[in-house]
Amino acid sequence: MALMGVQLVASLLAASVMQRLAPHCSLARWLLCDGSLFRFKHPSEGELCALAGKQMPRAGRRDRRQNGAGDGKPLTVPKDIDLRLETTPVNVADALVLRFFLEYQWLVDFAAYALGVYLFTEGYYCVVDASKEVNIGAIWCVLTVLFSLRTLHLLTSHYFLSEEGGERSVCLAFGFLSLLVAMLVLVVREDYLEFGLEPGFADLFANLEVFANQRGYEWSVPVTKLTVKLFLAAACAFIGALLVFPGLRLAQTHLDAVHMNAHRPFVQVLLHASFLSPVLVLVLWVKPIARDFLENAPVGKSTVTLISSSAFSSVRLWTVVLLCALRLALTRYHLQAYLNLSQKWVEQMKKEAGRIAAIDIQRKVTRVFCYLTVVTLQYLAPILLVLFSTLALKSLGDFSWGLVPGSPGTAPATAPPTAAPPVVPGPGDEDDVDEMDEDIQATVARVTEALSALRAVLTPVFYRGIFAFFTWWVAACQVMSSLFGIYFHQYLMQN
């Protein structure tokens, strides 16, 4: 198995370029700080006093009040003042101080370079017989999925550290709901939900038995299939708890983005299509609705095959990727809708009676911008989970991008690796070179044996089941949380 190949060189080059260019050229910074997004500046005390028709306290009197010489009462203004917030473009200086900005920049930039490595790898597999090499692009995709889950876990952990228990209760409740739904989904037969988990687990256990028998071990399945599914259901509950607040936030930004673009019907159609895209992802793995209908479409009393089985798998992959691209293209509409919450809160405040402290107005307006990177991560991380799990499903599951049987896009047929020409040592270095060659050959042999054993145990059949189910489950969690968010913001918040 070739270890030091073109893929590894491209991977190391991408990692080096990412490290060098991150401080100067960053996709994450461009997404937030190119001048397209506008934030609202909080009003000063002088502006609030002028709007309220009051005189600004003198500096000396304010200093004495802060030192305890005065009555210590905060400055208050009527809620119905004619307050209009000033807007300014989001720049790099503003974004660098935001919470979780470094995590956001790392995740987005890594995902961008992972996509570049993956595209290079796919092109490399199309023109070169690389079936014996490790698919570096798939490894980058799996790492992106893991980093996205880690980022969501980091965000969710702060809800559990909060003194208020509301967010923690929501995460736990949705986690238990996800556990129940996952257990119900895992007992559905493959005739209805074609994940391929049953063939994948059967293939895994069979390969483990062969692997153990070849090494002289007495092997038996240590856990039953039911126990494996229980562990998988627990993982689904964990993922569901991570995705509840991203779904609730998506519902809020979707409603605000649609209202913000009321005069642009085409953008509204795209926003609705983006919001409902996880529903289409769910339908793609429902066999009677998707595959069976297209492969055996009823026409009168007969059936017509509209698309072959392999072509349907390719269409499904392309559909998920295009839906993720649509959601990524609408990122700024959702982010601007979130930033507009400052003005929305001010308009709501004007309808109320009474007075409010000036510091509370400033905090409310500033707090919206302070959580911009958190909202961005909550919007992008689920999309990255679906996108890169689909790309890993294609590569590790041995699928093809081609819509016609035999079209390019599948890894070439297996061929024996070509041996490298031997290096002829000099007359005085034969002993050192021989010893170094032996060490290198022994190391390469051990690594090659380990990777060969891993590829023999974890086959494409197993990867198809795992990544298909993971992609479907992330979309299902998005549907459950976002639809509940729509109900919450449309009905419960109105009462």
UniProtKB/TrEMBL annotation:
Residues 1-28 form the signal peptide. Its main location: membrane. This is Transmembrane protein 161A. GO terms for cellular component: membrane. The chain crosses the membrane at residues 137-161, 170-188, 226-245, 266-286, 368-393, 461-488. It is a multi-pass membrane protein. The keyword Transmembrane applies. Belongs to the TMEM161 family. It is found in: Membrane. Keywords: Glycoprotein, Membrane, Signal, Transmembrane, Transmembrane helix.
